[in-house]
Specification:
Elements lengths: L5 E3 L7 H5 L8 E10 L2 E9 L17 E7 L6 E9 L6 E3 L5 E5 L2 E10 L4 E8 L7 E2 L13 E4 L5 E5 L32 E4 L12 E2 L2 E2 L17 E8 L2 E7 L6 E6 L6 E8 L10 E5 L2 E8 L10 E7 L16
Parallel strand pairs: 15-19
Antiparallel strand pairs: 1-5, 2-3, 3-4, 4-5, 6-8, 7-8, 8-9, 9-10, 11-12, 12-13, 13-14, 16-17, 17-18, 18-19, 20-21, 21-22
The structure holds beta-L-arabinofuranose.
Beta-L-arabinofuranose (FUB) binds next to β2 and β16.
Length: 339
């Protein structure tokens, strides 16, 4: 499959239960869905999983993706369009290998695709590519974003128009190598009693192609204001940051990686601190858990993935289900569909 448009109908889906059991597309493997509404249409920016034949290891080398396809639909449950290849690794001048979880934003009459990929020295950096259309094709900038590192960028626009990028991922995502924004190839995973590595944030410049400030750590804390230690690995940050705003509060959600939860933490500023509140999504089938949370026509939705179609951890399929915020601002945790 390359470049052409394929459509799949999910028109008969009505309840959230059936949404939970239904991959959005099955002609390609997709993961890490970052959803947005652009121009009254829902666009999903996923990773495009492939069977590359790269042996599996703890660094995630088997997630050896080489391009992006963007999906769109006019409503939840509507027909899905796959817009074909939006960006190919061979057209990113500085890229080495592994196109991981992307996100997108719209500003300056331009669509921006943000993506992590290892550079030619095998260090994850974050790149940006632009298009006049939400579905691309996208043209990559010649260099990664200066001072960017690690994986899983997500871009959030606050009510005052300012854009922030949240990013980072430990283990294969290399965040443990970047204390104080300085690279140390020997930077080790934290020991059980040590404080966990923190996710990162930076404001974006008006041209959306650079950081407008020094990258900062984000404090994720418990109800007493204490940072999590590595041993609290059902609560500490691993990867897959996402930000949404609800009733004036900032909701930072993320994957706990090796314990497989999507959790959320709430704060009063885009920079945090964020206080841990609970689970958004319980572990899905497959090792990774990665999501986005979006309001569409006054309802909130959780986009996520599992491995229902393949049974293989690196060949995932994206899904969507409704997400409920309770009156007190808490989120009702989603129990995923398990065969
Ligand atoms: O898709 C590759 C990696 O797997 C992502 O960057 C992580 O968030 C995990 O889902």
């Amino acid at each position: 499959f390359s470049g052409c448009v394929k459509k799949e109908s999910t028109e008969n889906i009505t309840s959230s239960d059936s949404l939970l059991s239904q991959p959005l597309v099955s002609h390609i493997y997709t993961a890490d869905p970052s959803a947005h509404v652009f121009d009254n249409r829902i666009y999903i920016y996923p990773s495009h999983d492939i069977e590359a034949g790269t042996p599996e290891n703890d660094n995630g080398d088997h997630f050896d993706m080489r391009d992006y396809h963007i999906l769109s639909m006019d409503s939840i449950g509507g027909e899905i369009t796959d817009h074909g290849v939006a960006l190919d690794i061979k057209n990113i001048p500085w890229a080495g290998r592994q196109l991981w979880a992307p996100d997108a934003a719209f500003a300056n009459d331009t669509y921006y695709l943000y993506f992590p990929v290892k550079d030619k020295q095998d260090i994850f950096r974050i790149g940006v590519a632009t298009s006049t259309k939400p579905e691309g094709p996208f043209i990559a900038e010649p260099e990664p974003i200066a001072n960017s590192y690690s994986i899983d960028p997500t871009v959030f626009q606050d009510d005052d128009g300012t854009f922030y990028m949240y990013f980072g991922g430990i283990w294969g995502g290399q965040l443990q190598r970047w204390d104080n924004n300085i690279y140390d190839s020997a930077g080790a995973l934290r020991k059980a009693e040590e404080l966990a590595v923190l996710p990162r944030v930076a404001k974006l410049s008006p041209d959306m192609k650079q950081f407008a400030e020094k990258v900062k750590e984000i404090k994720l804390v418990d109800e007493n204001g204490n940072l999590f230690t590595e041993t609290q690995n059902d609560k500490r940050f691993f990867e897959a940051a996402w930000m949404h705003k609800y009733n004036g509060k900032y909701y930072f959600s993320y994957s706990t990686g090796d314990t497989h939860f999507i959790n959320y933490a709430v704060g009063d500023s885009p920079y945090g601190p964020f206080t841990y509140k609970g689970v958004v999504l319980h572990p899905v089938q497959g090792w990774t858990n990665h999501h986005s949370i979006v309001e569409i026509n006054n309802k909130w939705y959780l986009f996520y993935h599992d491995v229902q179609l393949s049974g293989k951890t690196h060949l995932r399929n994206v899904k969507v289900t409704e997400l409920k915020h309770n009156e007190d601002g808490s989120i009702e945790a989603v129990q995923p569909y398990i065969i």
